[in-house]
Structure formats: C-alpha cells, structure tokens
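Design job #97: recover the sequence.
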C-alpha cells in the first residue's frame, strides 16, 4: 500500500460541520482498493479527544504555536488517525471554528496554522517511521501545509482540495511572524491577498495539484462570479486544476438498511417512511409532494429565495419540511413560515432527523447560489427523493434534468432551474407538483435516481490516479 497523508479540520465520525467531514471520513476506505493507504491528521478538539482514549504518542512538540503539544496515533473504525493534541489550541467549548456564542475564535489562523505546520513536519521527517508519498490538504484550514512542507525541505508532492472557495483563511498582515511565515513571501505572488494573508491563496500557490469537488465548479472557479477573487490565480493554474465529484457513504445512506426509518428497497416502499415523517412534523396527508430541505442556513444556500417562492408550492398542495441552522435571520424567517399550514420547520442540527426526512420526503430542494458539490442531492438520488436543484457546481453535474428529451430517453433523475431567483424556483416547484401528479413519470424519475452510482468508487479511482501521477514526478 502506498502511503498518503490527508490533512483536514473535520472528519466523520469524529467531528462534522459540513460536507468536508463526509469526504475526509469516506475517502480513506474507498482508496484502499486502489492501492493507497490514507492516514488522516486532524485537530484534537475536545469532541475528538474523548473518542480517542486508547491513542499512542508518536510525536512530541514542546512549543507548538505557544504551548506544548503532541501527535497521537489512533484507530477508529477503518480510519487511521494522527490526532494533534494541543490543548491550548483545541481543548475548548464550541464548534471547530466558533466559540459558544457563534463567533470565530480570534486565534483561528494560529490554530490551523499549527495543524498545517505539523503536516509539513510529517512530510519532511515522517512520523514513527511512517512517511507519506503524497500530502493531500483540504480547504483553508490545511492551506499552509504545502508551504510549510516546502520550507521544511520536503519534496513530497502536495494536492490541495477546494471544498468551498468562499472560506479563504484570511488573517491580518501583522500575523506573518506568529504564523511562522516568511516575510519575503508576503507578496502578490505569495500568500498576500489584498494586504492580508490568505491561507487558501498560499495553498493555490504552493500546491503541486489543485482539485475541487465537481467539474462544473472547477470551471466556475475560474470566473469572477464564482472565483471570489481567486479566479485569476486559478486560471493561471488551469492545467493543474481538476474537478473530482464527491461520493457518499452508501452504507450509512442506504434506504434498505437505515435504522432511522421504515426501510424500503424500491421507491414504492416509501409510503411508510413518508407517513411517519408527516406524523413527526404534524403535517396532514395531501396529494401533493412533500418537499424537504436539510441545510446550513446561509446566503450560499439560496433559502431566502425559497421563502419567496414557497407559495407556489403550498398553494398547489405541496408541503415543506426544513431542517437547518445558521443565519439567525433565516432561522427566524423559517420559524415564521412554519405558522402556515403545509410548512414544518426544525431549527437545529440532527443527523437522525436528516435521515428520516430524506427517506420520508418526495423531493429534496437545493436552490444554492453556488454549490461546490453538494451532498444532499446525492442522498436524495439514493433514497428516491427527487432533487430539485439550481443548475450550478456539483448540482449541475449530478442531476439529470427532466427535460422532455431526457424523460423520453428514460434518463432524467431530477429538476434543475436557473437563475436562482424566486420566479425560476417557483416555476421549478410548479413543475415538481405537476410531475408528482403524473405517477408513471414520477416513478420513472425515482427508479432512475435510485440507479445512479453515488458511492465513492469512481472518484476514489480518480484521486488514486492523481496521487500516482504526482508521486511519479518526484
Ligand atoms: P455544505 O458542506 O456546504 O454545508 P453539503 O451538501 O456538501 O453542504 O454537506 C452538508 C452536510 O451536512 C450533509 O451531510 C447534510 O446532510 C448535513 N447537514 C446540513 N445541515 C444539517 C442539519 N441541520 N442537520 C443534520 N445534517 C445536516
């Protein structure tokens, strides 16, 4: 097995705030079939340390960004972990990035620089006799790892994956020293970004290869509309940039075995799960589609647009169940919308509930303004829950729109719309209601959806091929 080190700030089943955790948790298992053994370096947050009690110390770090730290080696399920135990950085209340009041920790740049610095050290010296052949870093949190690795004299090739270019790891210029960066690299060709430091930019400059999580997002990233300031740099590296779709864990997300639901093998068997979901949320049975949203509530996800378009659905007998949390204004607006009949809202984060909703709903709505890959539409395909999605990023790449031709050819799996406006979304919701009422057509959509390959096999093969290619260059 060829060794590869993944550097990530989240990883299922230890700690998750979004899709990155799913990817980091699932990729190692899928890679073994392709000859790569992935080990994962992640921060020893309080939630992680409690799950890694039987860990072995493999590295001592007497002064890691202001405190004593060590690297612990642990196994969890199929995962092979290196946990960065640095209590002064990670033993805190709150989420990985936010304090108990929802504010960014002020030392986030140092916290994740520390993670990246340790990755650089492993890439240059190895750890406990283990040496990676490739360093695979995820998002701004691991953005400095390729830089530190080079500065430490490592020649291990580096791959950087953009899960979301909106989060760029910005730090004020006066943190150059505290981040152990070289002032000479604080230039437009280095990690300087409009007078500040960007760890995402550092990664885009110093990585050997760049990937992102769908081919369409890889193209979009090179435009001003989606690149969020990084488009020029990404265009200059087009030859090294590749979109590789995310997969999902098809064992965790399997309607035939899901312990949260009345299981089913074909979409015809959904009716019990649907009835249970209506009961759980106090919704009356109707003959319209039960639509669902499971999402962070943020501007990215376009849910303000859904609030505007919602009458088009409920006035035609459709219903909405929403599970989400985030922006307080959106949380309040959805709570208010739930006063109307046919709309049920749960503000919070709840894995079990997300499975019950995915199984019981007829359609899953994803009206994102941009979406690097998106996972909920993939769960939807697997559960025969028809995705109704904006035509952007990974949503464009994973759903086949029910155009007349696609319906006639028997390949359609969902409904796509653009642009992300209330008018276009309302039209898509009306189309959803109409298609739902045409039973043979809806059932064909469900059958096609459930037949899609949404696991990791194909994408793991692409990552493995990329690792093989970069490993050969050294
Ligand atoms: P992003 O990473 O931008 O949040 P993705 O669609 O890639 O979006 O991944 C989101 C993941 O988080 C999915 O696994 C989704 O089911 C999960 N999720 C989002 N919000 C909630 C919630 N409120 N409760 C449970 N799971 C959620």
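Job complete. Output follows.
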């Amino acid at each position: 097995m060829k060794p590869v080190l993944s550097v990530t700030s989240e990883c299922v089943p230890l700690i998750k705030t979004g899709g990155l955790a799913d990817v980091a948790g699932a990729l190692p298992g899928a890679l073994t079939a392709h000859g790569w053994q992935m080990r994962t370096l992640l921060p020893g947050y309080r939630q992680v340390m409690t799950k890694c009690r039987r860990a072995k110390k493999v590295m001592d770090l007497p002064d890691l960004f202001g405190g004593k730290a060590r690297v612990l080696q642990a196994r969890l399920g199929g995962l092979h972990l290196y946990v960065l135990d640095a209590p002064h950085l990670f033993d805190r209340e709150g989420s990985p990035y936010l304090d108990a009041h929802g504010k960014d920790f002020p030392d986030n740049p140092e916290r994740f620089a520390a993670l990246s610095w340790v990755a650089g050290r492993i890439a240059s010296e190895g750890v406990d006799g283990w040496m990676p052949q490739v360093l695979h870093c995820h998002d701004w949190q691991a953005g400095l790892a390729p830089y530190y690795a080079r500065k430490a004299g490592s020649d291990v090739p580096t791959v950087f994956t953009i899960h979301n270019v909106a989060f760029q790891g910005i730090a004020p210029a006066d943190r150059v020293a505290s981040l152990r960066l070289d002032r000479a690299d604080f230039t437009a060709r280095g990690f300087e970004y409009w007078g500040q430091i960007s760890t995402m930019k550092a990664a885009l400059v110093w990585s050997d290869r760049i990937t992102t999580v769908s081919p369409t997002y890889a193209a979009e990233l090179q435009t001003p509309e989606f690149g969020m300031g990084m488009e020029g740099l990404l265009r200059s590296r087009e030859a090294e940039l590749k979109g590789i779709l995310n997969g999902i864990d098809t064992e965790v997300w399997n309607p035939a075995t899901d312990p949260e639901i009345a299981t089913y093998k074909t979409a015809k068997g959904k009716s019990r799960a649907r009835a249970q979901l209506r009961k759980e949320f106090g919704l009356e049975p109707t003959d319209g589609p039960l639509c669902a949203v499971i999402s962070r509530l943020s501007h990215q996800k376009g849910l303000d647009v859904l609030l505007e378009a919602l009458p088009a659905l409920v006035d035609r007998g459709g219903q909405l169940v929403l599970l989400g949390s985030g922006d307080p204004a959106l949380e309040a607006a959805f709570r208010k919308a739930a006063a109307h009949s046919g709309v049920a809202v749960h503000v919070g984060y709840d894995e079990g509930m997300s499975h019950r909703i995915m199984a019981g709903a007829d359609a899953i709505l994803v009206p994102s303004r941009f979406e690097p890959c998106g996972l909920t539409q993939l769960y939807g395909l697997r559960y025969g829950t028809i995705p109704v999605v904006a035509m952007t990023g990974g949503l464009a790449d994973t759903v086949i729109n029910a155009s007349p031709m696609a319906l006639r050819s028997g390949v359609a799996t969902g409904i796509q719309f653009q642009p992300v406006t209330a008018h276009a979304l309302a039209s898509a919701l009306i189309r959803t209601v109409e298609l739902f009422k045409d039973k043979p057509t809806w059932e064909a959509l469900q059958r096609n959806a459930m037949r899609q390959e949404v696991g990791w096999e194909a994408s793991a093969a692409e990552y493995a091929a990329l690792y093989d290619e970069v490993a050969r260059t050294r």
